Structures are given as structure tokens and as C-alpha cells.
Amino acid sequence: MRLEKYLVECGVASRRKIKKAVREGRATINGIIEYNDGADVYEGDIITFDGVVPEKKVLKYYIMNKLKGYVTAMSDENKKTVVELLPDFVDKKCVFPVGRLDRDTEGLLLFTSDGDLSHTIAHPDNELEKTYYVELIRDISEEDIKALETGVTLNTGYQALPGKVEYINARAINLTITEGKYHQVKKMLRAVYNKVVYLKRIKFCNLTLDGIEPGEVKEIKREDIII
Fold it and tell me: Hey, what domains does the chain have and what are their CATH numbers?
């Protein structure tokens, strides 16, 4: 394992701060200062960071079926946050949401204490699939669906990657995308002159909401998340 990854899993700091700290000589391996954050760490090695031997955290993973009306943030002075939906068995000081859902969007939200996983998920090169159940203000046409599956231009001028559309009825679809731009699903539907009236994320990577009631939180294992 790389020194940087080891220290991230110990929760001593963010990946970026760890890289900087190692270059500054603040980490040692077996009593020798190590300036390379990519140096290999083996079982039995004694690692210190700022003179302290950090302990590896037990990484946790949870799925939430988010309710409408909560912002995806750890704290907010004026609005209710998803943290308020976390049950007592979750250590709220150690986990954080991966990605975000808008305040008026429901559905699958992943929480973890695994910073390395969060970084992997957030990296745009990975193009991880996210599926949303979408209800619309007007009927969607075959031409609209074809446009979404070809790749529409958002009102910001950004050319969205092609999505996958599963037709449910004239005013409801499942839309799968691999990007996470701000209000992306809403903007994609706006590009075909429609409007989202209800939005729920129902799948993320291989994770689904099967058996998880609205507002409920379920603990899962790292191996349950296939990336």
C-alpha cells in the first residue's frame, strides 16, 4: 500500500494535505523520514505522522434513501441536512456523503468514512453510472429520447455525454448518466424543452434502493460497491 493511501485510511488528513505534509518531511517509515508519498508501506512497518503513530480507522459504508427537503451537507445554518436523517448507530463525526443530491431530489445517497473511495468515485475519468427516476411536466417524444441518448447541449453551453433512457410512460422515464454536473438531469430535460417535476436517484454504480424505505439508512460493506 502507498504511504499516502495508508495515511488517508488512518484519517489523519485529506489526500492533498497528506501529499504536502509528506514532502515537508512530516512522515516516517520505521524511524526514517519519507518524502515520497508513493513509498510502499508493508505490514509490520511503523508509520508516524507529525510524531504520532496513527491507527487505521474501521471504514464504514451506508446507503440512505434520502427524503425531499434535506440538503446534502454536513451542516447548514438555515436548512435541514441529510445528517439529521442518520440514525444513532452511525457515527456522524466520521462519515460524509459521497456526491450530492439536490434539496428537492430524493433517493440513493452513499455515506462513508473512506476518503480514498470518495476520491475514486468523484474522478470524472471513471464515468460511473447513476440512474434517476424522472417525472416530467409534459409528454416526452421519441425525438426527445433520441436527443438525450445522443447528448444534449445544456443551457450553460456544456455538451453533455449521452445518457440511457428507459421509457416508462409519456411523462416518466429512467435516465442513466455518467456525469454529475450541477442540476444535470434537470438541465438535460430542459434542453429538450421539458421540465422535471419529480426526481429520485434509484441506482448508483451497482447499488440500489431495494428494501430501503424513504428516510431509512442501511449499512453495507465495501465489497458491495463495485467500481
Answer: 3-49 (3.10.290.10), 61-124+207-224 (3.30.70.580), 129-204 (3.30.70.1560)
Catalytic: which of 40, 50, 88, 102?
Answer: 102
What does the pLDDT read at residue 190?
98
Cα angle 62-100-137, degrees, rounded to a multiple of 5: 115
Place of cell 427537503: 69
| CA gap 123, 180 in Å, rounded | 11
Largest CA distance in the chain: 67
Q: Among 133, 110, 103, which residue's Cα sits nearest to residue 202?
A: 133
H/E stretch holding 145 reads helix 142-150
CA distance 140 to 18: 49
User: Would residue 102 show up in a list of annotated catalytic residues for this protein?
Assistant: yes
pLDDT tier, 82 (very low <50, low <70, confident <90, very high otherwise):
very high
Predicted confidence (pLDDT) per residue in 91-130, tens digit: 988 899 998 999 999 999 999 988 888 888 887 788 899 9
